[in-house]
Amino acid sequence: MLPFLGPAFIASVAYIDPGNFATNIQSGAQFGYLLLWVVVASNLMAMLIQTLSAKLGIATGMNLAEVCREQFARPVVLGLWLVSELVAMATDVAEVLGAAIGLNLLFGLPLLPAGLLTGALTFAILGLQRRGFRSLEFVISVMVGVIAVCYVAETIFDTPNPGEIIRHAIVPQFQGTESLLLAVGILGATVMPHVVFLHSHLTQDRIPSLRPEQARRVFHFEALDVILAMTLAGLVNAAMLIMAAATFNANGYADIASIEDAHATLTPLLGPASAVVFAVSLLISGLSSSTVGTMAGQVVMQGYVRRTLPLWLRRLVTLAPAIVVIAIGLNPTYTLVISQVILSFCLPAALVPLVLFTRRGDLMGVLVNRPITTALATGVCGVIVVLNAALVFRVLAGAS
Fold it and tell me: What pTM does this model have?
């Protein structure tokens, strides 16, 4: 099984990025365990979506963007490409901001220099691609492991309520527009459009020229890869929200509105070690997810318009909006949450083509979706659209 492990772990980085820190911590602090069910549901959706993405790459030998280019009319392709570029920029805003905040909390580095340093560090990590995909997969997997260990430590520091965790993990509830906004943010931070494209790329050439029985076996191993990686990411996400609920909400700190506030409050509540662990996990999360975001941007551009930019230029293009956000002094945590809402609105541009393609026998061969799989995937798309529509309705109703 070992030769097939890796793609899902690279994709899983996007599911535990700084956007998740912002939405999960704000949700836990403000509403306690209330939105834990959203984390659970989002992670189950992520497992299904990433499995379909991996399957598309195995069956067609192309990534999702390339299949879109082959199957859709040119205006549709250009529209999807522009939306995907917006996704890449919104993603990098979250990643760079998160790593910059981590550097600021650990070393006192101002946010602007910290953002620039983040860009340089991610470029250095991306340089590992020259040694082959295994080196980069190993480094990214180690980073995921560090984040997981940090949150094992955080759950040891706090004392969560097991009964409340179980109840809110399975009972769907909302409390007003703000909880709905955070729910959509959690969904946008968990199910990430750019890694839907990237995952199909990571599996498309892993083992070329497969016979039908080989394709089934490869898909079996890649599905296990997805289950392992997404389960780990889901547990980390749940631990973020549980930590915020048990530490901040339970102690009357429901107004924690920023990652910086959360870090400062951890020291008196749980001790200085918990604050350091929190900042380290945030920094590693930002660096690893920014690296993966840049890789995804390259895949999207190459797939849709058959163009590639030099890696340093691609890094600058996606880095620029994050640096602008830092330079003009926008609230970092609120910007992180809004960036995740933008990603949630852009999700259908990745999910709808993925479902359409994986249900077609002429494209997928023996790996074509079963009817139940297509029905579940269609339901996921429907939930995302309904949540987004409900959010817009509630916000407009509140404004009027």
Answer: 0.86
